[in-house]
């Protein structure tokens, strides 16, 4: 039985909608960046949508948490954060999810258990490990998904965190989103180990590679992985192989790769693959897909309109949220 048939219309539609929202939102964000409406860094997630949709789709965000790096718009949308608040954050407006003071790399929602959006490479790995420790210490039933790129895997914080996670059997899944390039460098030029899934074995943490262009494979794996951790807490490690269609950030023309390579990966587009699979199982028609796409484009237009009309942060807000109240 195909995975599309196994999980049925409701789940597959939800995953398709999640990925399509990420795609259209980021296309709009890229457009607004080009018009200089958005300043600073802006790292688009286009091409990697199946990773966030497939992994977060397997969670219960009443008890589970996610934490990631600077390429975080897709994860924020996948947990259900309001696109208007995300776009306003990109604009640096007071109505943004981080009050306009974080920008692209700092999407955050305590309500949705989205703990960022962290701008320093690899910094989210020890923080996510700490959240997993909190879950175990408080005897909760949650799981943490900690995302980072292939460029972060050689940081010392990565190795210290995995060691602690195994010693204490913490309920955390480390996910390296291998989009093939750490900034502008092929990951194989800087990593002695090319099968990154092996990196967990040094700490006796099971590792596995997944195809990050196949959302149903990712979802199916994580449904089972999260279930196993709830039954008995332990860390896991995944390398999810994916590809970003755009440069490292909006200022990167990505001249370090060929047009042929980019086109090859676009032929494996995760949205097109799931749509085709659903059409083969007669779970969606072309007309229904076009309506979904138009509805999502309207949501993204509404988010831009909201950001455009939102106020700038007050100067007096500059020193707010610097210290937590004890």
TrEMBL record:
Its EC number is 1.2.4.1. Keywords: Oxidoreductase, Pyruvate, Thiamine pyrophosphate. Its cofactor is thiamine diphosphate. Residues 18-315 form the Dehydrogenase E1 component domain. It catalyses: N(6)-[(R)-lipoyl]-L-lysyl-[protein] + pyruvate + H(+) = N(6)-[(R)-S(8)-acetyldihydrolipoyl]-L-lysyl-[protein] + CO2. InterPro entries: DH_E1, PDH_E1_Alpha_Subunit, Pyrv_DH_E1_asu_subgrp-y, THDP-binding. Heterodimer of an alpha and a beta chain. This is Pyruvate dehydrogenase E1 component subunit alpha. It comes from Marispirochaeta aestuarii.
């Amino acid at each position: 039985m195909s995975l599309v048939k196994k999980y049925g219309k409701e789940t597959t539609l939800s995953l398709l909608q999640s990925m399509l929202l990420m795609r259209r939102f980021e296309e709009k964000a890229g457009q607004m960046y080009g018009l200089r409406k958005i300043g600073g860094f802006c790292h688009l997630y286009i091409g990697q949508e199946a990773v966030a949709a497939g992994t977060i789709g397997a969670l219960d965000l009443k008890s589970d948490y996610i934490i990631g790096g600077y390429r975080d718009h897709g994860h924020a949308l996948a947990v259900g954060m309001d696109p208007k608040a995300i776009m306003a954050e990109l604009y640096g407006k007071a109505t943004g999810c981080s009050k306009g003071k974080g920008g692209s790399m700092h999407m955050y929602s305590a309500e949705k258990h989205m703990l960022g959006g962290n701008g320093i490479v690899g910094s989210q790995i020890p923080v996510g490990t700490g959240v997993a420790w909190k879950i175990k210490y408080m005897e909760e039933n949650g799981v943490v998904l900690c995302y980072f790129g292939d460029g972060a895997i050689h940081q010392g914080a990565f190795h210290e965190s995995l060691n602690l996670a195994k010693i204490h059997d913490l309920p955390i899944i480390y996910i390296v989103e291998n989009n093939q390039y750490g900034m502008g460098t092929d990951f194989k030029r800087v990593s002695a180990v090319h099968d990154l899934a092996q990196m967990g074995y040094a700490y006796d943490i099971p590792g596995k590679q997944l195809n990050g262009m196949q959302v149903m494979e990712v979802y199916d794996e994580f449904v089972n992985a999260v279930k196993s951790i709830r039954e008995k807490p332990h860390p896991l490690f995944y390398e999810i192989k994916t590809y970003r269609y755009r440069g490292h950030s909006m200022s990167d023309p990505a001249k370090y790769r060929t047009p042929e390579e980019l086109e090859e990966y676009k032929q494996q587009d995760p949205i097109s693959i799931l749509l085709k699979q659903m059409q083969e199982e007669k779970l969606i028609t072309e007309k229904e897909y076009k309506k979904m796409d138009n509805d999502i484009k309207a949501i993204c237009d509404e988010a831009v309109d909201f950001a455009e009309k939102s106020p700038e942060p007050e100067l007096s807000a500059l020193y707010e949220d610097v210290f937590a109240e004890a």
